[in-house]
UniProtKB/TrEMBL annotation:
Subcellular localization(s) per the UniProt record: Nucleus
The protein, known as: Uncharacterized protein
UniProt KW Nucleus keyword: yes
Tagged with keyword Nucleus: yes
Family the UniProt entry places it in: Belongs to the XRCC4-XLF family. XRCC4 subfamily.
One of the record's GO molecular function terms: DNA binding
Length: 260
């Protein structure tokens, strides 16, 4: 079986008999997939409108609408008061009333009307509407209480989270400060060691410079090679000298080395 839906709309309308006064009515609706029922009261009198499946199909066909779309549109306008819509609850004779409301479709302003009959049991109709409103008010109050408690819990949790976040931020700042101080200490120590090594390298480089100078001086003091050898090489290259000359040259070279 389909599950019915319920709604109750409160309307403030001009009084059909006293134009300067406002008539307050409540429209309780029970919605089904293919039909719906209306119960209306102004607090004193009451009316009912039972719309059958055949009535809905006929009206939907007149407006070129599917039944589901017709029901959905009627529920929207009779479940909640729509801005821009003109609602009326006028006298239709013989104690009957005509409920109407307007809406726009494709730029055209349309009006739906349903005739309501006097309730055969006004007390029961009024009691049903009143009970529905009371139950709805109780459910709404309970929902408000639940939402309020949930909000309070959320507020407490939020404050805890903020406190933890602030604590974490402070700890992070302290940790970073401590790490930075240790880093500076290590960096300064490394700089001191590098400075000592640089000084040692400078000292070592100075001693090495002196030894190099001494080597250069000793090299400058070394006797030059005998120039006679060059002449011998030239004689050999030219091919003019004899073997005796070569032998004499060699003997002179040996004597020169021996004298030295």
């Amino acid at each position: 079986m389909e599950s019915p839906r319920h709604s109750c709309l409160k309307l403030e309308l001009p009084n059909p008999t006293e134009l300067d006064e406002i008539e307050l009515i409540f429209i309780k609706a029970t919605w089904y997939d293919t039909h719906f029922d209306l119960s209306i009261t102004n607090g004193l009198d009451s009316w009912v409108c039972k719309v059958s499946e055949e009535d809905v199909r006929e009206r939907a066909a007149q407006w070129d609408q599917p039944v589901a779309e017709y029901i959905e549109l009627a529920e929207r306008y009779l479940g909640f008061q729509q801005p821009g819509s003109v609602y009326k609850f006028t006298d239709a004779g013989n104690g009957q009333r005509r409920l109407s409301w307007t809406f726009e479709k494709e730029g055209t302003k349309l009006e739906w009307r349903w005739k309501c009959q006097p309730s055969p049991n006004p007390k029961q109709t009024n009691s049903g509407i009143l009970n529905f409103l009371m139950d709805a008010n109780i459910r709404l109050s309970e929902e408000v209480v639940r939402k309020t408690k949930s909000f309070e819990r959320l507020k407490v949790e939020t404050e805890k989270c903020l406190a933890q976040s602030e604590s974490f931020s402070n700890e992070k700042t302290e940790f970073e400060s401590a790490i930075y101080a240790k880093f500076l200490s290590v960096l300064n120590s490394k700089k001191g060691k590098l400075r000592e090594l640089r000084e040692q390298l400078v000292k070592a480089g100075g001693n090495g410079g002196k030894s190099l100078e001494e080597d250069e001086e000793s090299t400058e003091k070394t006797d030059p090679f005998d120039e006679g050898s060059d002449s011998e090489v030239e004689t050999v290259k030219s091919g003019i000298g004899t073997s005796e000359d070569v032998q004499k040259g060699k003997s002179r070279g040996r004597k020169g080395i021996a004298l030295k």
